[in-house]
Amino acid sequence: MPRPLSFKEIEAFRAVMQTGTTTAAAQLLHTTQPSISRLLAQMQTGAGLKLFDMHKGRLRPTAEARELFSTVQQHFVGLERIEHDLQGLRQFGAGTLRIGCTPALGLSIVPAALHNFLPYYPGTHISLQTLGTTHLREGLLHGQFDLVVSTMAIGSPELNASVLHQTRAVCVMHPDHPLAQRSSLHVKDLEGQLLLTLNSDDNIYLQLQRTMLEHDVRPGSTVETTYSSTICCLAAQGTGLGVVNPYVAATFASSLCIKPFLPECSVEVVLALPGHSAPSERTQRFIEELQKQLTA
User: Fold this and answer.
1) Distant-in-sequence, close-in-space partners of 126: CB < 8 Å, separation ≥ 6
2) What CATH code is carried by the domain that includes residue 237?
């Protein structure tokens, strides 16, 4: 009769899947090989599934075991994250700041803001993670961040989101590009050019596509990529023209020609905070440093 599995059984199963043998699993868990074998046998009975068979004298996981291991791993990642946070609290107390941001901001304004923040709170443990907006939103909802900043909207009724700064996208190209002598570039200048674009769910991409349709502009060809930084690198190589946010463009300014782009494509930096708790003093200070960078 199947029954709920115990934590010790699941832990022994995970160790065997990780190491490949009951002996190595026992060493990993600081126990004995017979104890691991007994827990595996109990787990198979409790689960009502065959999880291993013997092949040439070695345990071999079944398809069911591999699928179960995938689920188990997801839960243990959460447990390991808890332990990591506990270690941070033991070492630094409540003096932690967990920041999430999109890669473009992680290459531009966030490092500068963090550099200026640290002298006010020396010894603070910082976690800075660069992720896509969807993962940032999920991480904030699950308590993994104190704040997140993105160049995309972060919509959720459980979060407090606001626009920190609004500006305009710019056009980037190699300094020797034929259009580099223009004071600004109009969308009509993209006609027949090799265009470097972001993915189709990006705000700048959507605005650019709408503008090109309105002006009946057809690029010669396109290279689509996930990151604004990749567009800047390609433009610096002379591959083509790209339209990106000005923050990441400024990071590559030494190897690019950067021009205003018309009609304007709006760029917003969105700040999101957990809706269920007030921001800490450290969080507030970091937001102030972000605002200074954005208005510099």
Assistant:
1) 96, 97, 99, 114, 118
2) 3.40.190.10
Laid out side by side, the sheet with 147-150 consists of 125-130, 96-101, 147-150, 266-274, 159-168
First to last CA, the chain: 68
Please answer whether residues 60 and 54 qualify as being in contact, where contact means their C-beta atoms are separated by less than 8 angstroms: yes
CA distances, 13 to each of 50, 61, 255 (Å):
12, 10, 53
277 and 244 in one domain? no
Note whether 245 and 169 are within 8 A (CB).
yes
CB 255 within 8 A of CB 112: no
pLDDT in tens, 53-106: 887 778 888 888 888 888 888 777 766 666 766 665 555 545 789 999 999 999
Is 80 part of any domain?
no
Q: Which structural domain range is residue 289 located in?
A: 94-166+269-295
The answer, yes or no, to whether residue 1 has pLDDT greater than 70, is no
